[in-house]
Design a protein that fits this description.
The chain contains eight helices and twelve strands. It is an alpha/beta fold. Strand 5, helix 2 and strand 6 (about 100) form a beta-alpha-beta unit. The radius of gyration is 17 Å and the shape is globular. The chain starts with 14 loop residues before the first strand and ends with a helix. Residues about 1-10 have low confidence and may be disordered.
Length: about 270
């Protein structure tokens, strides 16, 4: 996926990417129980780690510089309501400010773009909940409009998904939306070029390298957290302990299989 993308010599802060923090059990791999999440954030805080505002990168130069101190980028994909009800109170306790990627067409709606085993569905954040998070210091990023895999779309459809999401989020919340995360982790060089042309400054993506730069467009390597990840393993990622790269390769492969939900969705809807 990133074989034709030039690498940067600089290294950004580690990035952890969550989807759901919830006590609502599901037969999936992208959720974390609140108690486990709380213990991990407490351990990070005790160890001196602080979250970084990704927009601070733009105050440097077009080439990102390494972050000093114990700082990490905390992200949430998909904009689920449980981020507000379960994760937000925990993060406030430690003054942690994440970035959350929102599919603008699903604000306040039920998740019906994904196929969930056992018929479980999750609500997305509504307008008032998002406004609370923004006032608390969270950074809002785009996750397109309809959460379709962009690699399956035409250039015109890609431009619509990326540009309309950015416009809608900026208009709704009177903010600047500079970051994007691509649904199902699917992207290619053309998609990155379109995102940059539209006005995005960076993306959190699933790549093996720590970070890359295309002209002045930043690719921040997000490290997805899955159900089987223990707090000890996640904590080791921030320090890039031995075996990190092998584990990263495994997680990138797991993310690639997220596209299977597209097949299941077609079968389930037919």
């Amino acid at each position: 996926m990133d074989s034709d993308i030039p690498a940067s010599s600089n290294q950004l802060s580690p990035c952890l990417l969550y989807h759901k923090v919830t006590s609502k059990w599901e037969a999936g791999v992208t959720w974390t129980p609140p108690d486990q999440f709380k213990r991990l954030m407490s351990a990070f805080h005790f160890d001196g780690w602080k979250t970084i505002n990704p927009d601070s990168i733009f105050q440097c130069t077009t080439e990102p510089v390494p972050e000093k101190g114990k700082k990490f980028l905390l992200c949430f994909d998909d904009g689920y309501e449980c981020t507000y009800t379960d994760a937000y109170p925990i993060l406030e306790r430690f003054d942690y400010k994440p970035m959350i990627f929102i599919p603008s067409g699903f604000i306040g709606k039920n998740n019906d773009w994904d196929h969930h085993l056992l018929g479980r569905h999750f609500n997305h954040l509504n307008l008032e909940q998002l406004k609370v998070l923004i006032r608390a210091g969270w950074v809002i990023g785009s996750h397109t409009v309809t959460h379709r895999a962009l690699t399956n779309l035409s250039d015109l459809e890609i431009k619509h998904e990326l540009s309309e999401s950015k416009k809608q989020l900026e208009a709704l919340f009177n903010i600047q939306v500079d970051w994007v995360s691509f649904p199902f982790g699917r992207y290619n060089k053309r998609i990155l070029e379109i995102a940059r042309e539209i006005g995005y400054k960076g993306a959190v993506v699933h790549i093996l390298r720590h970070n890359c730069v295309i002209d002045d467009f930043i690719l921040w390597s997000g490290d997805a957290v899955y159900r089987w990840d223990s707090n000890k393993l996640i904590h080791r990622r921030l320090y890039r302990k031995p075996g990190y790269r092998l584990g990263k390769l495994f997680r990138v492969c797991v993310n690639w299989f997220s596209g299977c939900t597209l097949v299941w969705k077609r079968l389930f809807s037919s």
